[in-house]
Amino acid sequence: MSRRSKAPRGSSKQGLVLVVSGPSGAGKTTLLRRVLERDERLRFSVSHTTRRPRPAEVEGEDYFFVTPEEFRRLADARSFLEWAEYQGNLYGTSRGAVEEALAADHDVLIEVEVKGAKQIRERMPESVSVIVLPPSFDTLGRRLRERASDTEEVIQKRLEIAREEIREAEDYSYVLINEDLERAVADLERIISVARLRPQHVLPEWWNRSEVD
Length: 213
Hints:
Strand content: 15-25%
Number of domains: 1
């Protein structure tokens, strides 16, 4: 059987779905913001949440802030690719928004907790998952305390959750250690570059350009 039968001319290109997780304090937000600024093909999937917005957060850019009732309605309607509860709040990834971005020939970056990442891997096995970790657990605790935004009780709760999240690291496609920001940005960009070379992302476009019968 020829390779052409596996990827016929005219078949559509499949966009990359990149799923990124990591414990609070691992430095995901700054890392992902840098990568998004430098990669025009990448689109950020804005999640829905029931938690209150923080002072600097913008509706529709950081999150879609909804009531618990509205969130449940969307969940019941299967509008989420994944959803989970984290520290008493609900978070979900819009299925329609991800599909719309992929249809527009964009790659999609989804920042999601470990439970949500597991759901996406099960529903989209072609996705690429990355967990971002600090250099050590001690470093994580220090970073959380340096924020000076949480009580020690809250910090201990975050660290307890982090222990459980880190135990899931082996299930991810890649583990990225965020010790130096610029190095971590370069590492994530390399992961994205390699993922874009997989057959399902390259061959359909190649056949569409080819004049070979």
